[in-house]
Amino acid sequence: MGTKERRERERAETRARILDAAREMFATQGVGAVTMRAIAERIEYTPTAIYHHFKDKDALIIELCHADFRLLGVELGRSVRIADPVERLRRIGTAYVQFAITHPHHYHVMFMTATPAHDHDDVSIQKNNPEEDAYGLLVQTVAEGIAAGRFRPEFTDAHELAQIHWSGIHGVISLHMAKKSDAWIDWRDMATTAARMIDVLVRGTTLPEEA
Amino acid sequence: MGTKERRERERAETRARILDAAREMFATQGVGAVTMRAIAERIEYTPTAIYHHFKDKDALIIELCHADFRLLGVELGRSVRIADPVERLRRIGTAYVQFAITHPHHYHVMFMTATPAHDHDDVSIQKNNPEEDAYGLLVQTVAEGIAAGRFRPEFTDAHELAQIHWSGIHGVISLHMAKKSDAWIDWRDMATTAARMIDVLVRGTTLPEEA
DNA sequence: TCAACTTACTTGACACTGTTAGGTGGGCGA
DNA sequence: TCGCCCACCTAACAGTGTCAAGTAAGTTGA
Fold this sequence. Notes:
The structure is a homodimer.
Chain A: H1 3-29, H2 36-42, H3 47-51, H4 57-77, H5 85-102, H6 104-111, H7 134-147, H8 158-179, H9 190-205
The structure holds a DNA duplex.
């Protein structure tokens, strides 16, 4: 009597088909440019069929966002093996920049758009699991650095320090993404500027190495 | 025969009325939430009347944006009196943060939205006039600091260095604006973080003072 | 004075968006 | 076989930015 299981599987399949189409289209054209009708047409369904699987467009976006956050967590998680916390912090930064360059539209939705309110309760990502929670990984790395006395004494709050590092790199990325076509500014290469920014942030927050 | 002048004046008046209404509504509700119909209703005209004065909604936004940039330039221009370039850089940073806090919606449109392509040629702001061109002011200040040997030797490019400072502060502001309602992150106060960021940026780019 | 022209503005629509109420039809359990 | 369930569709609604075609006032020239 596996009919129920099959039904569920089929439902999950079309759900996945919607997600796949939406992901691809969002990534190449941006969320704003992709309509529900276009997604539906792509998978050869009616627009309303999507609403049978997702409450609305926002729910669809949020779901994909969660997957993106997990992906980011995994990619940053590779940096975790480095023992030295400050060096690890650097690597997290460069990996983060790389993620933004590779998935610009994803980055835009994840960090440059006010995601509509939703509860994280049901979420599939586990907080504080460094394999999945990118922010948790950052905070943990910074906290290790603080514990090891690597940072200047005024930085005692791991969250504050983490947010400073995050913001600095995010600033380079987001400003470029939003304004790079503005001819008023004589833009420098983003990756280079971001690398410089990481240097500045580390130098500005750490204590000089004991010689 | 001043009829032509009167006509022009009347035209300019309703144009200004449109701009005033749009500015106020954009500032309080955000660009996305304000419709052409709503602006028209506010000034008791038909939506299409607006199109007689502005090509489309983007043109309206761009025009207001230019005014905002000029305002920012003026506000930052007050910092210009300080002689020491590094100290002036700090003051520009805090004034910039203050602008963002005071005019969050303006800030959002100015720096967090990909403004549709347009030529700056016709623009009323004068480039390199520090009273109006905020970015020019920043670059000039940074360049002075470089000339005075205040920055570390690897920073020779005024634009690059300016963009690093700008990005760092913008990162704090924009990340807060976009994600502050995200309960996943244990946010710290924006103004405090921004002040800390300025310290980090200055310390990370300047040479230590000669004792 | 009166016709021709200009122009600020309106009417009424178009194409598009996200979204929903109400149907349809095929497979399932009883 | 009856009736239910439910994935999916049809048809529409309200809202968006925008435009072609009109209108009515005012100016200009003979």
